Amino acid sequence: MQNNQQRGPPPSQQQQQPQLQQPQFQGSFNCYEAFPATSPPDAQFYQQQPNQNTFLPPPQQQQIQQQQTSSQNQQSNDELSGYMAIGDPQQQQQQQSQPLQQPPPSQGHLQQQQQQLPPQGGYYYYQQPNIGQISNNNQSAFGFQSNLRSLPGGNQQMSAIQPQLPEQSMQSQFMQPMPPHGALMSNNQQQQQQKRKEVYRYTAPHELYSCSWSMRPEQHLKFRIAVGSFIEEYNNKISIVQLREEQGDFLHIGTFDHPYPSTKILWIPDPKGAYPDLMATTGDYLRLWRVGGHHGASLEVMLNNNRTSDYCAPLTSSDWNETDVSLIGTSSIDTTCTIWQIETGQVVGNTARATEGTVKTQLIAHDKEVYDIAFSKLGTGREIFASVGADGSVRMFDLRHMEYSTILFEEPNRKPLLRLAWNRQDHNYLATFAKGSNEAYILDIRVPSMPIATLKNHSASVSGLAWAPHSSAHICTAGDDSQALIWDLRNMPRPVDDPILAYAAGGEINHIAWSTIFTDWISICYGNQLELLRV
């Protein structure tokens, strides 16, 4: 939802004096380089030329004029909103601390006007307002602005992101810090400025499809993301990158080859760092990778449950059990789901295999292809999982009672259901969406057969969804309309009409993931771009 703004007259009808944009404030004194509304942020700062006729009056004259037109009890607008001034800011501060003097009565209007002229070559700078008057304003006057914006009726407690302007007007609202008289910003100030970014972007040399966040707790391993390519060939790539928030960029850790595009990438769910640093991928087979080395990771083991045939049924998705990390589930187009038992240990010598896997259970889950599988934390968190498939149904299974399953939901038009996700806080809820549909369904396993909420705000097909790891009432959906929408579901079963936050990406979003460890970050993939969004 972009804000509607009234456009002013064309440049030919505007005043010759540059229109300075209203900045956001900090409770400190700084100098700012001001840009006109038609100039990009990297334009050079203005210097007053001797032959110009229009000047901004210095602070002393502004306050004198205000005292002449207002009572002593009235606060000046400059104390509340600041003002533009010209000259040396340090000298202006010293002059403001001295009593103001009226010009002698004998001076004419021309002489008074000459006193208002700044020294030749003086800088425009912005005088901040009185700190006491704006103690409640915590906005920054500089930083990276994103397209993530709040929608009407949104929950402002959910996010610190404020409504943003359309992209075409962002440059005209940019205020860039200018160090006074050659003083450079310290490294700490530059780092703080970088940390205010709301969007970080990584550009890959190929199309991206899947992405996944690492859960390792070590400081030097935080903000690691694995991204998989989508190349219509046998040879594909998986890259591991790491966000360096202090520097404001990504560190490329490594890239390794992967047969066919990876339909799912998983990091071992190990927030305590007790197990080897592993990754799992699905495509033609389930593969486990040990992270490290020059290429980012090396193949640990390839798991195949059909060794009697040279052909394999492609795997559409997988899930790593967070309660018992020895369990990995996969779904396949051959209508089956397979639960693998993974055994991890320390390497003994150079030839011993550190990780092995055996089939714990394989079952025919659907009448047609199975497109997704996800473990639930119901009960002990080890036995229950759900799946969706081309038959348009959501089915729930219990590893302790494999003789039957529960059909939780069937799509009214029997459209294939592509993905599902369990609520991470309230395990009675899950979400899914159908192929070619712009709607996402919220299901309650206690009320089967009918969704308790339908999210309808996408204008094109939904392509992914992710629950908030720290809230039971928030979910993010992504679609081919290039939008990522965050919804507040606290008022269910009442209808949920509009999302509370929306982000407009640069293309159709292929994948979305909400970080389990860094809960205020969401990753999306579109085209050859990976973007990290602060929410």
SSE diagram, text form:
Blueprint: E1 32-33, H1 59-69, H2 77-81, E2 83-86, H3 89-96, H4 109-115, E3 124-127, E4 149-150, E5 176-177, H5 187-195, E6 199-203, E7 208-213, E8 224-229, E9 235-244, E10 249-259, E11 264-267, E12 278-282, E13 286-291, E14 297-303, E15 315-320, E16 327-332, E17 336-344, E18 355-364, E19 370-375, E20 384-389, E21 393-398, E22 406-410, E23 417-422, E24 429-434, E25 440-444, E26 453-455, E27 462-467, E28 474-479, E29 483-488, E30 501-504, E31 509-514, E32 521-526, E33 529-534
Antiparallel strand pairs: 1-5, 2-3, 4-30, 6-33, 7-8, 8-9, 9-10, 11-12, 12-13, 13-14, 15-16, 16-17, 17-18, 19-20, 20-21, 21-22, 23-24, 24-25, 25-26, 27-28, 28-29, 29-30, 31-32, 32-33
Structural overview:
The chain is mainly beta. The protein folds into two domains: 17-97 and 107-143, no CATH class; 200-534, YVTN repeat-like/Quinoprotein amine dehydrogenase (Methylamine Dehydrogenase, Chain H, 7 Propeller). The protein is built from five helices and 33 strands. It has helices at residues 59-69, 77-81, 89-96, 109-115, 187-195, and strands at residues 32-33, 83-86, 124-127, 149-150, 176-177, 199-203, 208-213, 224-229, 235-244, 249-259, 264-267, 278-282, 286-291, 297-303, 315-320, 327-332, 336-344, 355-364, 370-375, 384-389, 393-398, 406-410, 417-422, 429-434, 440-444, 453-455, 462-467, 474-479, 483-488, 501-504, 509-514, 521-526, 529-534. The strands form nine sheets. It has a five-stranded antiparallel sheet, with no helix packed on it. Mean pLDDT is 74; it is low at 1-84, 99-126, 128-150, 153-185 and 345-354.
